[in-house]
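Bug: token stream looks shifted between consecutive jobs. Job 1:
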Amino acid sequence: MQTVEKETPVWQKEIFEILKSGDVKQIAYVPDAGHSHAIREAQQDPAIRDVVLTTEEEGVAVVSGAWLGGQRSVLLMQSSGVGNCVNMFSLLEMCKFPFLTLVTMRGEYAEFNPWQSPMGQATQAALEIMGITVHRADHPDEVADVVAAAFDSAFLAGERVAVLLGQSLIGRKKWENM
């Protein structure tokens, strides 16, 4: 069986360019197809440390530790991972660490897995109740501006910010047998 590689969407390339030009030194993530370009690029870039997590809340500690060590770091996760982080988000609030997370959404557009829907529907509220400002991009032409604005809010103004990348932006997910 021959596999056909799809061209990386421009908006995914723009996200990595923003992180790279913003001097991000660590990218923490649980593997996710929606973040695959940034993950691959981080793995190949000797100036960026890619940190594979076993669970998303570890990422809150990783990015906090990076900041304490003088480095900018970003957490990449799926909306289902936000629920895993709620308790750890208190670290950000209590210590006033700058924080940027990019969240690929599930439980929305054309979702096939009903287990993704509850957290997908609660993601924004969960982030906001923990004091994290939420921005959202649903169209390719708005991703770069939204991510760049969130980046500046986090690393220039010292805020805690999340960008939700809508499921319609990422495209339909489908279950594949390997």
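Job 2, same session, no restart:
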Amino acid sequence: MTAAPGPLDGTVVVAVEQAVAAPFATRQLADLGARVIKVERPGQGDFARGYDATALGQSSHFVWLNRGKESVTLDLKDAGGRDALEKLIGRADVVVQNLAPAAASRLGVDAGSLVERHPQLVACDISGYGRGGPYSDRKAYDLLIQNEAGFVSVTGSPEEPAKAGIAVADIAAGMYAYSGILAALLQRARTGRGEAIEVSMLEALGEWMGFPYLYGTYGGTDPVRSGAAHATIAPYGPVTTASGDVLNVAVQNEREWERFCTDVLQRPELATDPRFAGNAQRHAHRDELATVVDAVFAGFDVDEARRRLDDAGIANARQRDMAGFAAHPQLAARDRWRDTPTPGGPVRMPIPPVTSGWAEPAGSVPAVGEHTEAVLAWLDASP
């Protein structure tokens, strides 16, 4: 049976974008079948193309974020480039941009201005801090927002804070832009009216900080930094087996705690030890508990450890590196990898995590300006 077109088939998205947050949002739209026209600077294009050269000579960030898009180069400092952009916007259903707020206003591509000129348009601004307020015009990059949102203060080891290993502020902003755009398209289908949407990285990551904010504000102390272990639940974290493999073990309630003591540790007396009676006590005595648990797991290899945990119904996971993720047996069994064409050759990438009857993304990663002539010819031929 032939897969159905993506639900955004026929939707035109113009993306005046760079770096991570906006490209992440628009790649999701492309994966759903939208035609995404990416506007880049002549020559170098999106500066994320230069972040590294690890993916067959190309930037790993750019390859990840730009599947299925058409690249058009326009000089927006030139009247001809601005005129072409305005024509593109006139043909668009959605416009996404993450220029600095002042630059977007000068070009007239901020969401408010766009919807004023094109009332049926869904326009989305993505910025570091949002319009208005003392931080509006500050430069904002992912690591800076991780700091401003308090994320770094609750991440890392007890001795040293750490950033996330991925661009969580950018991804959070991109996901809220993506979901906001879908909601606005649904609204437009009912009302015929477009919508101006604004997403700030600080507010997006701030939404994800709800647990530590509430815990610290109303509990009196911030969650402790606990490395790869959970900040408030014990035992919930890494253990090293005799084979050197690391498992992450998660005990979530008292029934599991009793089974963990009896069947996994084979120390049933620990289940009634007053130091470990309830999660609050286990958390208060987590160092003593870790000493006991680590000593037991050091006595058997990873296969025996997983057998005991699985037989007892205790959740656990292997701590994998990127090679381990790429070879994950569950992803292989579910056939979740595909080759994506790029200018440097095919790159193996995961397919979108939403499983449906829609056609899988089949688009390529574009070279800088690869589609400029074709898109401009389409504009000239359009009524």
